[in-house]
Each structure stands twice: as structure tokens, then as C-alpha cells.
């Protein structure tokens, strides 16, 4: 168990290299919120995790004032709504159309990037892993156009500041480097998606994300192998 920012009435149950946990951490940092972080052992899940998320039994779980909230995108939107006055960027646009557009692309990311991410992690055949990496490449090519439209020439999907799609897609950035070593495919490549490649470097270096996203490829692979064994 480790404390972040002095604790408070927010507690996050997670695993250090999970993109779904990392995106919640980024938003907590963006909002300047104090929270207690509890590292879970997914091979020996805690009673608190099982009680807090009895349906899926997965991380992340945010506990606020003793009440649990599960599922990463749900948690992010909860934080944005409940702590709207806490400072930091709004994360979700105030305009209803732009907000709906951000939610669309965030759902696209977890479908078209998140699903192949699971395949690369758990598939046994190299051919299946390579096919999943190719699907991520295709998704990122689509997201290159989405970034162009959403950013309107600025630094992030959210414009001048980190927004909802930045948080959701950005949470996979550390894993893109892992995939390159595991599968031999550079999924985020400046030659194919120059705008996204530059965006990825910008986001990973931003204060709310730089101490959250995993950057030690060998450590992530070692952790994954121990979990799968």
C-alpha cells in the first residue's frame, strides 16, 4: 500500500502497469486530487477488491467516501463530474456535441486498441499476436485523422489541454513499446502517424502522466510472464 498526495477520502485499487488504472491516476493528477493507492495482487485478490467489485472482480476500483466505483471510463467521468470545481482541465468538453464526440473516440480506443491489447497479452500463437498488433496499427491510423479533427492544430485531442481521449488512448503508450519488443511491430510509428507519434511524446512527458505510465519495458514483460506462469 502506498499513499499518493496525502491520502484523503479517495482510495484507488490497481495494478501499476494496467492502462485502465493508469488513466484514472492521470485524471487524479490532472485534478490535483489526493488519494491513497493500493497495489493489488491479481493472483491473490484482496477481500476489499472482491467486495468492491463483485461483478467483474477487476481493477481499477475507486472508493470515494466508502462507496466503490468500477470500470475505468466510468471512474474517469465520475471524477470529472464530482470534482468539476477542483481545478485543472475539464477533461470532458462542456459542449454537448464535442463531449459526445470525445466519448465516441474513447469507446473506439478501448474497442479497437484495448481488445487487441488483450490478445497480444494472452494469445499463445505468435501469428495471433502479430495480427492483433496489425489491428492496433489500423486503429491508430484512424485515430490520426481523429486527432487532426479534434485537436484543430493544437497539442491534444482535448485542444490545448489533456482531454478524455488523451487520457484513454494515452494510457496505452507504455504498452506500445512493450509490443514492439514482444511482437516486433512498432504500432505507433512517426512514418505512418506523425501527428499521433508527436502527441504520444508530448503526453508521456506531461506532468500528470510521466510518473504514471510504465516506461521500463523489461520490467513490464517480466511482470507479465510471472502473471501468466
From TrEMBL:
Family the entry assigns: Belongs to the GST superfamily. Tau family.
Subcellular location: Cytoplasm, Cytosol
Key words, A-Z: Cytoplasm, Transferase
Functional summary from the UniProt entry: Is involved in the conjugation of reduced glutathione to a wide number of exogenous and endogenous hydrophobic electrophiles.
Alphabetical list of PROSITE patterns matching this protein: GST_CTER, GST_NTER
InterPro entries: Glutathione-S-Trfase_C-like (IPR010987), Glutathione-S-Trfase_C_sf (IPR036282), Glutathione_S-Trfase (IPR040079), Glutathione_S-Trfase_N (IPR004045), GST_C_Tau (IPR045074), Omega/Tau-like (IPR045073), Thioredoxin-like_sf (IPR036249)
Alphabetized GO MF terms: glutathione transferase activity
Gene Ontology CC: cytosol
Domain GST N-terminal stretches: 8-87
Protein name, UniProt field: Glutathione S-transferase
Domain GST C-terminal, chain residue ranges per copy: 95-227
E.C. number: 2.5.1.18
Reactions accelerated catalytically: RX + glutathione = an S-substituted glutathione + a halide anion + H(+)
SUPFAM superfamilies in the record: GST C-terminal domain-like, Thioredoxin-like
One of the protein's GO biological processes: glutathione metabolic process
Membrane-crossing residue ranges in chain numbering: none
Organism from which the protein derives: Panicum hallii
Amino acid at each position: 500500500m502506498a499513499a499518493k498526495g496525502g491520502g484523503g477520502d479517495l482510495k484507488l485499487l490497481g495494478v501499476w502497469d494496467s492502462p485502465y488504472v493508469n488513466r484514472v491516476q492521470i485524471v487524479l493528477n490532472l485534478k490535483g486530487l489526493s488519494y491513497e493507492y493500493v497495489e493489488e495482487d491479481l493472483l491473490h485478490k484482496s477481500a476489499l477488491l472482491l467486495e468492491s467489485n463483485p461483478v467483474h472482480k477487476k481493477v481499477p476500483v475507486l472508493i470515494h467516501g466508502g462507496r466503490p466505483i468500477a470500470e475505468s471510463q466510468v471512474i474517469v467521468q465520475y471524477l470529472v463530474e464530482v470534482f468539476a470545481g477542483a481545478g485543472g482541465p475539464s477533461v470532458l468538453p462542456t459542449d454537448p456535441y464535442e463531449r459526445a464526440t470525445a466519448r465516441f473516440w474513447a469507446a473506439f480506443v478501448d474497442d479497437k486498441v484495448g481488445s487487441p491489447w488483450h490478445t497480444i497479452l494472452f494469445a499463445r500463437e505468435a501469428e495471433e499476436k502479430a495480427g492483433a498488433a496489425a489491428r492496433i496499427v489500423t486503429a491508430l491510423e484512424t485515430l490520426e485523422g481523429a486527432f487532426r479533427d479534434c485537436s484543430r492544430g493544437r497539442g491534444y485531442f482535448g485542444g490545448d489541454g489533456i482531454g478524455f481521449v488523451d487520457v484513454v488512448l494515452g494510457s496505452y503508450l507504455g504498452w506500445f513499446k512493450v509490443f514492439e519488443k514482444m511482437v516486433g511491430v512498432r504500432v505507433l510509428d512517426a512514418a505512418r502517424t506523425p501527428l499521433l507519434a508527436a502527441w504520444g511524446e508530448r503526453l508521456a512527458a506531461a506532468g500528470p502522466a510521466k510518473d504514471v505510465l510504465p516506461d521500463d519495458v523489461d520490467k513490464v514483460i517480466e511482470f507479465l510472464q510471472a502473471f501468466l506462469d
